[in-house]
């Protein structure tokens, strides 16, 4: 018996959410008294794979196949399921990222396993029962799901558990499962990234702005503030609908759901559909000129003021602090 964790790579590197998923899987392995194996797909260097030992993976299955260099949902799901069978894994953990959201259900079907996606806590394993707390209704509620299948698949929400070190020596093993032709009907040859900015779902700090900014020409100060903080930028739905910002920045019920350590909302009213995607942020700072704006009700810190006065002052203060 073991726990298997899928470690998603981007350009041969692991993101923070991977170390978090490994830490989470290691904690489950410790509860069960079993070992943790990681499965890496794509061309990842040995030192990067070995580094997974720092978070508790004692074995790393390495699938270095050129056809799988870039993410292919169907094929990756087959490889993860084969790895789970090989390792007799009782629990399979992955990150509830863009690709994890597609992989989780596929892996679960292949293993006839129960799935919890959007997990926010370690499972409770008591009296033969295995239940997991998860986000429900776009983050407006939590649900407790009991998994009754012998194999369980858990997709962990980024930033829900944190990265925890549990250093062990990781051994690397080559794994080359046979792929069906139906798994490779589409191969991603190359991914050309539109931007090299910090990716929103992984960002620990997010600076977000809404219609209060009046127009796209005013985003310079938002980008400058985000740049100084090392934060990603986000926006409300009307802003991306009006093409002031790209749709990839739209957060909320119909956009991306995020849970960064810090979310700064500037000129955003705080409509329930917006809050659905950001309310699990650890600290929320709201800047709005209307003291009655609903966002203040969920804010940890609020500044009532005009964004065009407050943001430049914040930028100056940060520059002075950094200098
Ligand atoms: C089915 C459905 C799904 C939706 N999904 C989403 C979603 O995923 N994400 C989302 O964001 N919205 C979503 N919406 C839209 C949502 O209901 C709100 O309309 C939207 O969030 C409002 O965006 P906003 O706060 O930027 O704009 P507004 O509501 O226009 O608010 C602008 C805010 O800026 C403040 N302001 C104005 N000028 C300044 C200034 N100079 N300085 C400081 N503050 C200023 C105002 O006081 C106001 O609070 C959805 C709606 C529906 C019906």
TrEMBL record:
Residues 3-191 form the Electron transfer flavoprotein alpha/beta-subunit N-terminal domain. SMART domains: ETF (SM00893). Gene3D superfamilies: HUPs (3.40.50.620), TPP-binding domain (3.40.50.1220). Keywords: Electron transport, Transport. It comes from the Bacteria. Belongs to the ETF alpha-subunit/FixB family. This is Electron transfer flavoprotein subunit alpha/FixB family protein. It comes from Pedobacter gandavensis. The lineage of its organism: Bacteria, Pseudomonadati, Bacteroidota, Sphingobacteriia, Sphingobacteriales.
